[in-house]
Amino acid sequence: MMLLSPGPVYIPEEIMKAQTEEMITHRCPEFTELYTNLKDRMKAYLNAEDVHLLTSSGTLGLETLIMNIAKPDEKMVCFSNGVFGDKLGKTAKAYTNTEIHSLDAGKGWNLERAKEHIDNCGAQVFGMVYNETGYGVRNHAKEITQYAKKKGMFTILDCISAWPGTEMDMKEFGLDGFVTGSQKGPACPPGLAILGLSGEAVERIESRDKIPGFYNDLRAYKKRFEKDGQTPFTPAITIMRALRKSFDMMDERGGVPSAVQKHKELSEYVRKRIVELGFELIPEPGFESYTVTAFKGGDNAKEIKKRMKEEFGIVIVGCKGIYSENGLRISNMGYVTKEMLDKCFDALEKIKG
Fold it and tell me: Which of 10, 236, 254, 271 has its CA 20 to 30 A from that of 216?
């Protein structure tokens, strides 16, 4: 089966095999070496002050950022343009006063659209999704988070379906909180949320009297790592091994800059082929995702998806929200190749007739 879904994504055999080494305890030097390696690499990749790897989904990772950075007596402003932006807003509402601004499906946020809301919200924390996976829309996050940071806000960005296929430098973006998931761009099995923090975010978290959580309290992770390079709770050791292998493979291919360029080029190719087959793209021009392409599949979109899997062994998925009935998505995240995509388009062409 060929997975071209936007998470979990296709996993190369080398990454899958990395999980099969003999099991170790998370209270041994070998684990400390593994965990330290991953934290150090992510700090360098993101230009982050600190990094945490939580055994959880990306959604719990995002919630962890919000609960640690946003305070109950303050305010957070959230920008949404799809179901994952809506989820961010709902999560924020569980922990703080929240103001949400939304765009129609397929539309993207840029500074021109965001500036007035930022100027008038009076919020201390800002949050948005970088890559709205449900519609394949890439928001212009860098210019927005930079502006929000200049206005004195703590900034949180959901990068779950963006990194490492899309540009990211936490200091350059003016970013305080970053999150992605192991099953997305890193091309590993589900189970790890990767969090990045700025120096200001670390200080804010450390200074808080109370954080409304136990497992998600990042102070416990920082304290335990400083003690012996380990985690406070049992981690997903096998997925960490897979992640280390994925990073090895990415570095061998030129690191994050090469990964961004590869995803950008493949996404352009996917869009070109989709249009040539007569389909209409969903994202507005200039806001197209580098990692997942969404398009209108017509009245028989669900039948196309079904036949792709049953007749050709290729998994593509539907869209979210208002395009859940007639939208389709093809992912080029991780280690997907042009050859894999060509097989997908050959199958689509045969089905379309």
Answer: 10
